[in-house]
Predict the 3D structure of the following.
Amino acid sequence: MQGRFCVVGGDGFIGSSLVNSLLHRGFSVHATILPTSGKEDIHYLQRLPGAHERLKLFNADLRVEGSFDSPISGCQGVFFVASPTNFSSKDPENEVVGVAVQGTINVLKSCVEAKTVKRVVFTSSSCTMSPLNEEGEMNNNPSSVESFWTPVNYIRSNQQQFPVWPYFASKTLAEQTAWSFAEENNLDVVTIGPSVVGGPFITPYIPTSIQILLWFLPGKNGVPSSIVRSILSLFGTFPVVHVSDVCHAHIFLMEQPAAQGRYLCLADTLSVKELQQFIIKRYPDLKITDMLQDLDSSFPINTQYKSDKITDLGFRFNYGLEEIYDDCFESYKKLGLLATE
């Protein structure tokens, strides 16, 4: 893989890690950041090894058509990582779901206009591949996990069960929009759906997915257990993956000529009971809440929820559950957020 690549959403958790991975491999990178970002907000990107010579940052907004023309111009590949995250919005249908769908069209239009883009790797989410059907029943025997589409109407109708439904709906509808656009415009698009992403982070804020992985920490370091309950309801399991594997998988799918369609990206799945046992055994001095007190431990493990499609193509995951949590905790320690007995 040679040339220049654009990372749309380079200031996010996965996006910044992907920029770092591409620079480490010697590539030139165009990365888009939110227009509200100032110099003091993006120092973590500007200080990456190789950034001074090979990284160019662009302000771009998913809501603005043509906003991505300049950053994508001259790039042979685009990693489309950006996604709206304003989940406290009073109008999530327009400000989250609507922005995600229109933003997908805007970015892919710029890819077509550039005429140099050979492939787009679209960062979707495992939340678009729920085994639930429109009646809320779980299918545990799929021919392919990637054949599932999360039932948007069902999760919209059950918002108490799915408190982050705007995210689930926005990612699902945005990916479906990407596939429709790609077919209509003869654009080579491959999508990847990471599960709950952990590991180290270089952003100045704590990524939401890290907070989800560490929801059992006391205080304000995690997220409400209802978020975890919605994940269990959606998947029948708690799926996790390391951010380094996610970045490597993106690059692998960009490079691999045989890649096509959708790819789930997860390294491990487990129940809440299994997670609690793992945390207590591996980190005996860590102060945690009782995970089973707020969560129903009877959620079945969906053993068919695996990343077979990408591994069958030749990709290998390098990080397991231990590394995912070790690196999360290491980042928290640096911020002074871990409490021990």
User: Anything to note?
Assistant: The CA atoms of residues 38 and 59 lie 10 Å apart. The first strand starts at residue 4 and ends at 8. The chain has 14 helices and ten strands.
